[in-house]
Amino acid sequence: MGENVRIERGWIFVNGTRQDDGTIEIGTGGEMRFSPFEAMSQRQDTQITWGHILTASVQRLAFWRR
Question: Which end of the chain, C or N, has fewer beta carbons within 10 A?
Fold first, then answer.
């Protein structure tokens, strides 16, 4: 699960693509980008944990405070 989700500069990147029916297929090599707010609604489909969302939120705060 760790290689499918990464966090950079307040964005959550997921290794996966959206299928025709709207679901997300994990591990396809595509890259999807979510803000912490968007990630809260996509958590079940993408294996994003609350820890990922919290980390991205803190990174965004630190980035915008500069």
Answer: C
